[in-house]
Each structure stands twice: as C-alpha cells, then as structure tokens.
Design a protein that fits this description.
Pfam families: OCD_Mu_crystall
Radius of gyration: 22 Å
InterPro entries: NAD(P)-bd_dom_sf, ODC_Mu_crystall, ODC_N
Helix content: 25-40%
Distance between the termini: 41 Å
Strand order of the largest sheet: 9-8-7-10-12-16-14-15
Number of strands: 17
Structural class: alpha/beta
Strand content: 15-25%
Bound molecules: nicotinamide-adenine-dinucleotide
CATH topology of the largest domain: Rossmann fold
EC number: 4.3.1.12
Order of helices and strands: EHHEEEEEHEHEHEHEEEEHEHEHEHEH
GO molecular function: ornithine cyclodeaminase activity
Organism: Microvirga vignae
Number of helices: 11
Number of domains: 2
Length: about 350
C-alpha cells in the first residue's frame, strides 16, 4: 500500500502505555537498552551538539536533535522541579523522527514515559560496564517519577533485587514501594541518606532541585561503589559534592554537553572523563578493579532519544498502537498550497 503522504503516525500517552504493557516493562527496557547500545557503537557517524536550552527562573526547556544521515530525530523536553507542587510533572517530553531524504516526519510521539524508560535503560547499560560484578543492592535517593523506571531497568539488566529508598518526602518512597510490589524486590525505606547507602553497591541519585544540592557527601562514598548520578542535568543543578568527583572515574555521554550540565560542571574544563560509547564499543575499559569508584554522570543525550524513537517506530509497526495524524499539507499539485486552502473553504463554509 502506498502510504498517504500527509499522514504521520502519532503515539499518544495512552498508546505508549498500552505498548509498554503489551511488550512488558522489563522486556521493553532490555530491548531499548539493546537499541541504545547498538547506536552507541556507531556513535561517530551521528550529528552531535549540546542540546539547545532555554533557561528561566523556574526551569528549562530543551531541544535535542541528532541524525545518523538517514533518519533525523529530536526531542522537546522540560525540567521544572516546582511543577509537582502544582500537580504537574517535573519532566515532560515529545519527539519526532523524520526521513532525511524528504525531510518528512515519520513519527510523532509522547516522550514523557519514553524519557523515563530511556533514561533508566541508559543508566543500566552504563552500570553493566561500570558497576561491581554481581551487585544486588541499589540505593535510590529521590523517589519521584523516574525512580521505579530506574529500579526496573537495573533489575532487568543487572539483576538488582534489593532497593534502599530515601526521599525527603516519605510519601514518594511509599509510592515506590507500592508500585514495585510484586516485581521481586526486597525494599527498605530509609530515614537518612546514610542509612540508604548501607550495603549498597550502586547508588542512583535522581532528585529534582533547581540548585546545586549536596545529596551525597564524600564520607558517604566507599571504595568500589558505582554512582548513577541522574538528577544533576542543568547548569547550577548538581547532586554530588565535588570531592566525590575527584575520587571517581567519571564516564559521560557527550562531553561538550556534560561539561555544561553534569556533575563535572564543578570541575576544571579539562578534568579527564571517559566517553561511555568508547567503553561500549570495546575501545576503553569500564570498571577495572573492585576498589574503583565509578560515576556515570548522566545528563541525557539526543542519541538515546533517537534510539528510543526508532525502537518505538518498529514496535508500532508491529502492533498498530498509534493514530494517523493529518500533520502535513498535501495538495494534489505540490505548488498549489494556496489553492488547496481555497478549496477547503468550499468544503467547510466559514462561520457566520
Ligand atoms: N539524566 C537524565 O537523562 C534525566 C532524565 C530525566 C530526568 N532527569 C532528572 O532527574 C531528576 C528527577 O526527575 P523526576 O521526574 O523523578 O522528578 P520528580 O520531581 O518526580 O522527583 C524528584 C524527587 O526528588 C525528591 N528530592 C528532592 N530533593 C531531595 C533531596 N535533597 N533528598 C532526597 N530527595 C529529594 C523529591 O521529593 C521528589 O520525590 C530531575 O532533576 C530531572 O531533571 C534526568
């Protein structure tokens, strides 16, 4: 069948939820992680730029574009930590894939849920190479919207089955326990960060605060720990004390973006960091010994969203879980755009 040129597949939040549940959360995370690893192995051929950020007093709105030469993708995403107090999400997103040959969009999708999944999948991929072998216990500091996704990805990819939860708002932790019940976790809600860190081989920091916070201090971090630092992702918004960074081997997505947005904004601009894709591609070593402190300074990079968009496109082709969106004007004569507009007046008379 010849596709209708004006129609773009659109994945609503409702369809995304149905898709994730139809595939299964763990399988979705595993396949998404494979998709991300595949693209990280061909990192060099992508267009890369730090995301374009528009900062305001309350938050940030960002555009994240990339292309592999055949397909172009971008994500619109915001970060507004005060939003939850008004019943809104801290992070929302949507994204587009387009055909480089024609410039025509080929997918428009919600990405609020997809961002949580891709962030968690990327964290778990990094941990596969960086966390201590046979780690079972993870502390999660910050138990908001992203937290369960992180837990599920670490279970699916690494076999993490003990969670130590801490949030300044205990109701966030009880929500996590409720949502993750029946998924095979042994969960403990902790009263302090120090308590949450007891016995943890991995710590995920995923708090939201529009300032330089000190979620982890140097004395909390023992040798051999893997730190998955997710919440510090904007200028002036970090989670770790700088002394921790100086003791850690630091792995990042795209250094020009991470130096602006990540934990390493606290360090000198030439402080050595390792690009995660090089480890995945087998060019560099991830964790080298049991005593090393490894840090994945996650900020979220456009290639991860591109991988997620392509994965979703494949999935909706198989499941039909999308709507047809009349997004692109398509006159019979491509140059007669105005004529098409006039003919629409005949079809739909103007209101009196
Ligand atoms: N790196 C990435 O790719 C990526 C992707 C998505 C989101 N993020 C970031 O992750 C963070 C969390 O996102 P979310 O959607 O879960 O936000 P959220 O607002 O839903 O949850 C944040 C949680 O952190 C808790 N918190 C705040 N300060 C704390 C502190 N000092 N100690 C312990 N807990 C604290 C809050 O009570 C809340 O429960 C945000 O900063 C967001 O920008 C990063």
């Amino acid at each position: 069948m010849i596709p209708k040129l004006n129609i773009v597949p659109f994945v609503s939040v409702d369809h995304m939820m149905k898709l994730v549940l139809a595939v299964g959360v763990e399988r979705f995370l595993i396949e998404l992680a494979e998709s991300i690893e595949t693209d990280f192995r061909r990192w060099e051929l992508f267009d890369k730029t730090p995301r374009v950020a528009s900062h305001s007093r309350e938050g940030v709105i960002e555009l994240m574009p990339t292309s592999d030469g055949e397909v172009y993708g971008f994500k619109y995403v915001n970060g507004h930590p005060k939003n939850t107090r008004e019943g809104r999400q801290t992070v929302t997103a949507f994204g587009v894939l387009a055909d480089v040959g024609t410039g025509y969009p080929v997918l428009l999708t919600e990405m609020t849920i997809l961002t949580a999944l891709r962030t968690a999948a990327t964290s778990a991929v990094a941990a596969k190479y960086l966390a201590p072998k046979n780690a079972r216990t993870m502390a999660i500091i910050g138990n908001g919207a992203q937290a369960e996704f992180q837990a599920m990805a670490f279970k699916a990819l690494l076999g993490i089955d003990k969670l130590r939860l801490y949030d300044i708002d205990r109701t966030a932790s009880t929500k996590c326990v409720r949502n993750l019940a029946g998924h095979g976790f042994d969960m403990t809600i902790c009263s302090t960060i120090e308590e949450a860190m007891e016995g943890a081989e991995i710590v995920t920091t995923v708090t939201a605060d529009k300032q330089n916070a000190t979620i982890l201090t140097d004395n909390m971090v023992g040798s051999g720990l893997h730190i998955n630092a997710v919440g510090g992702d904007c200028p002036g918004k970090t989670e770790l004390h700088a002394d921790i960074l100086k003791r850690s081997d630091i792995f990042v997505e795209y250094p020009p973006q991470t130096r602006i947005e990540g934990e390493i904004q606290q360090l000198a601009p030439d402080h050595p960091v390792m690009e995660l894709w090089r480890v995945i591609a087998g060019q560099e070593t991830g964790r080298a010994n049991e005593r090393q402190i490894t840090l994945f300074d996650s900020v979220g990079f456009a290639i991860e969203d591109f991988s997620a968009l392509r994965y979703v496109k494949r999935q909706i082709e198989q499941t039909g879980l999308y709507e047809e969106l009349d997004l692109l004007a398509d006159p019979d004569d491509p140059r007669d755009l105005f004529g098409m507009l006039l003919r629409a007046a005949v079809a739909a008379p103007t209101a009196a």
